[in-house]
Amino acid sequence: MFIGVAAVVIGFAVIIMLANTLLQSPLYYRSLEKSMTESISQLAEVDFSSERSVWLEDVYNISAGNSFDIVIRHNQNVIFSSSIDIGLREYPDTQNETEPFSPMREPKPVDPFRPLNEDMEWKETGENIFVGYSTDPRNNNEFILCNTQNDAGFSIFLAQPVEPLDAGIKQSNQLLLICTAVMLVVSVLLALVFSKGFTRPIKEIKEQVGKLSNLDFSGQLQIVTGDELEGLSNDVNLLADKLKGALDELKEKNQQLKNDIIAQRSFISNASHELRTPLSLIKGYADELNSGFVNDAESRKTYLEIISEESTKLNRLLNEMLDLSRLESGRMEINREPIRINELVMSFIEKYSGFIKERKLDVQLDLGEECTCIHDAMRVEQIMANYFSNAAKYSDERKKIIISTKTIEENVRISIFNHGENIEEEALKRIWDGFYKASNSGLNDSDSYGLGLSIVKAIQTLAGQSYGAVNHDDGVEFWFDAGLDI
Q: What is the mean pLDDT of residues 431-457?
């Protein structure tokens, strides 16, 4: 930009100087020829046979504002010449200055331009008007000449020296050269300032884009120009924020994918292990029965009961794995419907009354005010069944279980509490993972496969609701939320 502006200024100055040198002279000469032609046409109409004072006034009026000299001849005698001022004023008598000068005593004008029009070529520019160019042999000065002759026989001759015109062109070129130099310096300085001001934000944007290409999102562009560059810098900042957000989200999802892969591998490994145990038992006892080594009916009955029990466990495990897979993959939908939560709890207790009597459980209810929530009723019962079965398994000798409901902000929280040992804090974070079994004896049960809480997690995640477990001084509380029907 800096070089371009300087080149334009210099080129413009050179063009003006060439035009001034090459075109000004022809244009000025043509204009001068036209002016001389018009003036000589007016002079040709003057009546020079009238009183001298009369035609002199006409000559003065016509020549006013022009710089050419005028010579008027009659019968080869010069009657007027402006170049030596003869005939333009009266000369007083030298002996008596108060006495008017007699016209007969007026000096006879001479023709100073006669050498110019001897043997020169003329071109006709109008009716009986001729223009030519000549050089005075006495001093080599150039002139533009114009002459004509009127009907009364008076010859009119105009002469314009060229030297002042050439001197004017030369001076204008010098002035133009000085102005061009000043303008060039000013333009160069302005171009330098403007180019720096214009390229600075571009360089900053380029550096920021380079940092973005290297995934470096540090810093923000602070460009305030009020034009497209400011808009571009804002777009770059917005792009950087979006790229950073997308990259962070991608990293998070990538880490989650890694965790999911690890969890899936662990799930498959644990599932294989859990499946292998009942299958081994079923196969072992079936082989014993098939080999014929078991002869008495009591032993065969025992073997068949074991095979049936392990088959039931295996069927339950497969169903839980299938439910968990469907929930986590999103293939199983939550059927959202209004639920009167206290009614559902009472119905659940009634359904599990046989289980409660068989286990001799002391179930107490702490229900809040009846309200309606939005959830899947079947999934709510499934969550409660998982929590309730865990509470029954891990409660202490008091067999005390408390089921409570209460409103928390825009949700209803359903809790199941059992008296018993606390769960280790580290285990509280992992009990929601499939096939996880806590190491403390209070949570180690050979009849549990560790998928119940994973199913709870999957249901609540799909429903967009919270869940959790909390240790208390005398037991453990498991809870989950359902949104209020507002």
A: 63
SS3 labels along 22-87: HCHHHHHHHHHHHHHHHHHHHHHCCCCCCCHHHHHHHHHHHHCCCCCEEEEEECCEEEEECCCCEC
SS3 label, residue 361: coil
Query: pLDDT category, 98, cuts 50, 70, 90?
Result: very low
pTM above 0.70, yes or no: no
Least confident segment among 91-105, 352-366, 417-431 = 91-105
Q: Spell 135-164 as b/e; 16+ CB within 10 A means b.
A: eeeeeeeebbbbbbebeeebbbbbbbebee
Q: What is the CATH number of domain 334-484?
A: 3.30.565.10
Under DSSP, is residue 96 helix (H, G, I), strand (E, B) or coil? coil
Domain covering 2-169, topology: Beta-Lactamase (3.30.450)
Q: Parse the chain into domains and list their residue ranges.
A: 2-169, 229-326, 334-484
Q: Give me the helix-helix angle, 163-213 and 24-44, nearest 10°.
A: 140
**Residue 349 has what pLDDT?**
92
- Cα distance between residue 189 and residue 178, in whole Å: 17
Measured distance CA(113)–CA(159) in Å, rounded: 8
User: Which residues are paired to 481 by β-bridges?
Assistant: 413
CATH number assigned to the domain covering 229-326: 1.10.287.130
99: DSSP letter: S
Residue 480 pLDDT exceeds 90 = yes
* Helix/strand/coil for 117: helix
DSSP label of 116: G
- Mean pLDDT for 435-458 is 61
> Which amino acid appears at position 402 of this protein?
I
Is residue 87's pLDDT more than 50? no
